[in-house]
Write a structure and sequence with these properties.
By secondary structure, the protein is mainly beta. The protein has helices at residues 3-26, 30-33; strands spanning 36-49, 59-72, 81-95, 117-129, 132-139, 142-143, 146-147, 157-165, 171-182, 194-196, 200-204, 207-215, 220-229, 233-247, 250-263, 273-285, 288-298, 306-308, 312-313, 334-343, 352-364, 381-394, 404-414, 419-431. The protein has an 18-stranded antiparallel barrel. The protein has a 4-stranded antiparallel sheet with strand order 11-10-18-19, with no helix packed on it. Strands 6-7 form a two-stranded antiparallel sheet. The radius of gyration is 22 Å and the shape is globular. The protein starts with a helix and ends with a strand. Mean pLDDT is 91; it is low at 1-28.
Length: 433
């Protein structure tokens, strides 16, 4: 890191710290006592081989370093408390080039080259009454119908208003209205478009949703959401989760997720009438978990979801077979998954977890009638499979406590492309305040 880059990062952290100092002078109450300032260092290596030597670009490989400072204040004293959340990010290119770019780790400069460095900042105001919080500004919603992306160097943000309430026992209520997106990794545009992953660029005017979840007991929970992506679709989401204890170290867990999506307004993505659902059963015995899952897409278009300003996919696909590369969400696709997780804590290595899964899908897109529409490429039968391997280790103590290293490898074959992919992610959080 050169002097200019180090100075830029220092200014980002100083800006977040100055918010804390200004607030302390204005209000000596819980605003400061409950505040926190963290700096997270994230190193990301991404390699994707398309296994096509004849293509103009058969592989993508980039390496980047990111620093994210986040300040979250407490609330002022009074019946209604006020606060502020702020974040500032600095991204550095460690390795890339025009012939290897396109991983969405780095934005492009005006010459079409991956940027050497980039930075941005954002903030949100918040107000709390009891256990209800209203936020306005640059936010990071995680609703199953609208969740920003967390799969690259920085978590993206959405500009709008969000209301979160936990007034009722064992109940979480979430409502939001958003009009723009900032991807944060592949783009720093604060006024970015709300697009779709599979339909492509369409710039929906707004996204609004209302929903929540309720835990009836330690074993049973239900969730419901309704959303409208303006001029694109109306969507309903339902989730049911049940855990059946069998013994002190054995249990059987069931999860059902479903999305009903139907076009509305100007139908910017064309005619959509899709029911997507998945059912997963997981058997846990001590450190071992074995999961079986089945997923269905009932409709002549893919099950689509929000993309961040034409760059990275969002996280609003809570289906069991959504994997590292493929979502197994093509028209009328049926897929099955076998997954195994191992927690090495039981074997004397706390913090180390391993995962392996295999997913296979059969696709029938022949019912899509608009060959020139946004989903015309999907109008064909096909098959696909994916194998994912993952290892993650988190330091449990010492100077490097909290340091995590994560290796993710994916192999995909069939409809959607033949790829081999490797991601190596190292993350280290620092508590400053």
């Amino acid at each position: 890191m050169n002097a200019l880059q180090f100075t830029s990062l220092a200014l980002l952290c100083t800006s977040a710290s100055s918010l804390s100092l200004a607030a302390e002078q204005a209000s000596p109450g819980g605003f400061i006592e409950d505040g926190s300032l963290t700096l997270t260092s994230r190193n990301f290596f991404f390699s994707r081989d398309f296994r096509d030597p004849g293509a103009a670009q058969s592989y993508r490989r980039e390496w980047a370093q990111g620093f994210l400072a986040r300040y979250e204040s407490g609330y002022t004293q009074g019946t209604v408390g006020f606060g502020v959340d702020a974040h500032a990010a600095l991204g550095l290119r460690l390795d890339s080039g025009r012939e290897r770019s396109g991983t969405a780790l780095l934005p492009f400069d005006r010459n079409g080259e991956p940027a050497d460095e980039y930075s941005y900042a954002g903030a949100a105001l918040k107000a709390r009454y009891g256990k209800t919080v209203l936020k306005m500004g640059d936010l990071m919603p995680t609703a199953p119908v609208f969740a920003v992306s967390s799969t690259r160097l920085f978590t993206s943000t959405a500009r709008g208003v969000q209301l979160i309430s936990e007034e009722l026992p064992d109940t979480f209520i979430d409502a939001g209205y958003f009009t723009a997106i900032r991807d944060g990794s592949g783009s720093t545009n604060r006024d970015g478009a709300i697009d779709l992953v599979y339909a492509g660029t369409l710039d929906a005017p707004s996204m609004r949703y209302l929903g929540g979840r309720h835990a009836f007991s330690e074993q049973l929970s239900l969730g419901l959401y309704a959303a409208r992506l303006e001029d694109v679709w109306n969507q309903f989401y339902a989730k049911a989760g049940f855990v059946l204890p069998l013994a002190p170290e054995r249990s059987l867990a069931f999860d059902f997720d479903a999305y009903d999506t139907r076009s509305e307004g100007r139908r910017l993505a064309g005619q959509i009438d899709t029911l997507a659902w998945s059912f997963a059963a997981a058997y846990r015995h001590s450190a071992h978990t074995l999961t079986l899952a089945h997923q269905r897409i009932n409709g002549d278009t893919p099950f689509d979801y929000v993309r961040m300003d034409g760059v990275n996919p969002g996280d609003s696909i809570y289906l069991a077979n959504s994997s590292q590369y493929s979502d197994f969400n093509s028209p009328n696709e049926s897929s099955v998954q076998l997954r195994y997780d191992l927690n090495l804590t039981a074997y004397g290595v706390p913090g180390l977890t391993l995962m392996a899964r295999y997913v296979r899908g059969d696709i029938d897109g022949s019912g899509y009638v608009d060959a020139d529409g946004p989903y015309g490429y999907a109008a064909a039968p096909g098959k696909e499979w994916e194998r994912d391997l993952e290892a993650k280790y988190v330091m449990q103590g010492g100077v490097a406590k909290g340091l995590s290293v994560r290796l993710r490898h994916a192999t995909h074959r069939g409809t959607g492309g033949d790829i081999d992919e490797l991601r190596i992610i190292t993350e280290y959080p620092f508590d400053i305040l």
